[in-house]
## 1
Amino acid sequence: MIKWPALLLLLLAQGGAWAEENPELMSRGEELVMGRCFLCHGGTGDSSSPLYPKLAGQNEQYLLKQLNNFKQGQRDSNDMRKVVAEMDEQDFRAVAHFFSRQAPSRGKSAYAEMRAVGEKIYKEGNPEKGLKACRDCHGDDGGGSATLPKIAGQHTLYVETQLALFEERKRTNDNALMQDIAMRLDSDEMRALAEYLRGL
Ligand code: HEC
Ligand code: HEC
């Protein structure tokens, strides 16, 4: 578990991404979010409904990629298709900048046994099934990287849904990396991983 001062040091060590906050993008982003994203994702991206992914503290480049993927039809969602149709690249940059600078939150998992199964797969993968460890790409703390999503603290239902979409090849904007991973997980393992990630 990372405490705040440690997290701050980590962020500074990563090139001071927070230090480079752009005030114009922040205020344009906030305006767009309050007008167009708020209802589903919340005003700071800490969405309270498990149907909608948390975007607070998500990595900027990853957010930008997803918005472009929705716009170009490489990733589909009934809700997001409508949202991005009326936005341009400048708008995407502003909302991605804004959400990436909001404080992330994490949930609490009550299921210790399930969590332990999830933790094992997250850290070690499953060599028998040729499954790579999640942490190889998403990092020890689940924070991802500039281009890889932060998955720590995410809603359980959203994580499970995305893993299933990758497995069914209905989410196809990942260069098949996650499709290959999800194919090697059964639904109990997906559940366990989601349960672990929620509290990470
Ligand atoms: C009507 C509800 C709704 C509104 C309004 C909405 N979203 Fe979403 N958003 C969703 C849903 C549902 C998903 C998950 C889609 C899926 O299942 O793949 C999503 C997913 C996303 C993702 C992908 C997150 C990830 O972790 O991959 C981004 C980025 C995003 N929304 C940004 C926005 C922004 C920016 C706005 C405002 C400009 C916005 N959304 C407005 C419902 C909404
Ligand atoms: C080889 C690298 C790699 C490994 C290993 C990996 N992932 Fe991913 N994962 C990715 C990439 C890349 C994406 C983003 C794809 C995109 O651009 O939409 C992603 C996306 C995701 C998402 C969607 C996040 C969101 O906000 O929509 C989830 C959930 C996820 N991974 C979970 C896992 C889990 C659980 C494991 C381990 C079982 C795992 N990943 C292993 C590369 C990896």
## 2
Amino acid sequence: MKLFFSLITLFFPVLGLVACGGGTNSSSSYPNVALYTNLNLTSLLNYTAPTLPAHYDATVLATSNQTNDNLMTNKGATLGRVLFNDARLSFNDTKSCASCHAQSNGFVDQNRFSTGFAGGSTSAHAMRLGNIAFYRGSSMFWNKRATSIEDQATDPIQNDIEMGFDATHGGLAALITKMQALPYYPELFAWVYGDSAITQARIENALAQFERSMISSDSKWDRAYAVVYAANGNVNSNANFGLSLAGVNIPAANRFSASEENGRALFMRGPPAGKGCAGCHEPPTFALDRNSRSNGLDLNETVVFKSPSLKNVELSGRFMHDGRFNSLEQVLAHYTSGIQAGTARDNRLPVGGINMTAQEQTDIVAFLKTLTDTSLNTDARFASPLIK
Ligand code: HEC
Ligand code: HEC
């Protein structure tokens, strides 16, 4: 138990303790928070020290992109939860972050492109946010143009398609003026930061804390892998990732079918025995290798794209940065025979494709579906707290 806590605090230093400040935290001190949200400010949900399976060990937690400038607190993540779910952060009160990053879908919009505040369409597919904490390149968006989650967080608000506080609508200054007039925000910012000032940095930090807390650790794969991890030295190694999850040592509910197990082995192993997927989509978080280059979608591609973690990929609806594929089968067909030459292509993916039989493709699709995490998609910590 002691070990468990020390591992957790590596990742989430426990700063939330200052929350016990006496009467000032009671709901009556924050009447508008009580009017607009169902938050209980005296009994916060636990963002900083969630119960994670043992394979989210110190080595994995050390890959978090959290920095000392913005350590997570339960108060900060709670403010982030309000901001993320609040359509009033868009110019005409129609779009929140959650409109395009729906929790029930693994924080993604299943449409190929998303509809913004004024009916316009994005030119990229939305991205799943589960395990965003573990993207080590610290680069956000498909083309990695934002340097951090903090840096990304107010971009959609200022985007002329997405939420509409672009320069012609007054920019972030206009949003901040609007938030100052929404009675619950001065109260919430004072509760989190000690004074009611609403600033870009405070908005970005709270949103980033909330997003970093979206850890996916309860898929079928996690539950099965936890058994072999515990039985084989409590270490995340290629050897352990290579172990069968179809054996009788795995409880029946989480035991892999023959197809899932074959897909798992093909995904995890490098060539020639396997297909080398795990070299880029790295277990146990399935975030992308920070050094990964593009996967050859278009001839002569020069842009290096990232992929969000493959956790919940089944629920994405559309796949790749422009949502060009509408099924995981099409994704596997791409890797089998569609890989194009171009300077951005990663050499681990041969031009032409990785040789895969139809059955192998089917099995890898079956494996990808074991990465679906319904716990993340129903976790009360991420639901909208707004009631008005
Ligand atoms: C209208 C739909 C829409 C809204 C609203 C929206 N997003 Fe997004 N989000 C997208 C799309 C589309 C992308 C991919 C854009 C790209 O890469 O060019 C994206 C990408 C992201 C990423 C990058 C993920 C990664 O792994 O690199 C983050 C983080 C994110 N959004 C958070 C937010 C937050 C926070 C808000 C609210 C302040 C928000 N989004 C509002 C559609 C939306
Ligand atoms: C060299 C690194 C690399 C390898 C190897 C690789 N991928 Fe990818 N994968 C990527 C990149 C980069 C993207 C995002 C490409 C884009 O949208 O432009 C991606 C995207 C995906 C997506 C879609 C994700 C989404 O959110 O739309 C799936 C599914 C996927 N890969 C599965 C696999 C499978 C299965 C294999 C093995 C057969 C594999 N990948 C091998 C780099 C890799």
